[in-house]
Design goal:
Blueprint: H1 11-22, H2 25-45, H3 50-66, H4 78-98, H5 115-133, H6 137-148, H7 153-160, H8 164-185
Helix pairs in contact: 1-2, 2-3, 3-4, 5-8, 6-8
């Protein structure tokens, strides 16, 4: 109501309100018939192919149906609302098309490894062996079983007979010590 008078809405707004409030399929068909050709023409004038324009129109009108509850005639005219959805969808599609496709990443084979990589790996392994030797024998034993032997805590418990809490503590303390030792090497 405006100054005591009911607001006179356009036919398109009336259809949109019927879709919003009652999920009226006949009103939606009227919206589609009205906006479909206009959206298609606008998209094609902006350089979109006919097939792509049809896809965008379908997508936009599906969004209109899904988002009908968010339409507020006091905030926007139905035409502005629909064309804004179309504009945003077109921008999304253009961005997606312009996004570079990542190249197929393949892991290098062993033959491709160069001498520097091999030396670097050997140096890292030597640092890790030194750091492991700095651990107490008890810590080293559970850390090696957990990380090099791929054993679970329960499997380590079965092998050693140690309580689960002790195993977890030794692993945690051992890993902290390894981090400290490896950080000192850098």
């Amino acid at each position: 109501m405006q100054d005591g008078q009911p607001i006179a809405y356009s036919a398109q707004t009336t259809w949109m309100l019927a879709v919003r409030d009652h999920r009226d399929k006949a009103a939606f068909a009227c919206l589609f018939d009205h906006f479909g050709p206009r959206l298609r023409g606008m998209l094609m004038r902006s350089g979109v192919s006919a097939a792509q324009a049809e896809d965008i129109v379908q997508d936009v009108m599906l969004s209109v149906w899904r988002k009908a509850a968010s339409f507020n005639p006091e905030r926007a005219d139905v035409a502005g609302w629909v064309f804004q959805i179309a504009r945003n969808r077109k921008i999304d599609i253009i961005r997606r098309e312009r996004r570079p496709v990542p190249e197929d990443l393949s892991e290098p084979t062993v033959d491709e490894a160069d001498g520097e990589q091999i030396v670097a790996l050997e140096q890292e392994a030597a640092k890790l062996r030194r750091a492991l030797s700095a651990l107490s024998p008890e810590q080293r034993s559970v850390v090696e079983r957990a990380y090099m032997g791929d054993l679970t805590h329960a499997e380590i418990q079965a092998e050693t007979g140690l309580p689960l809490g002790t195993i977890k503590s030794r692993i945690r303390l051992g890993i902290e010590r390894l981090r400290h030792e490896l950080k000192g090497d850098r």
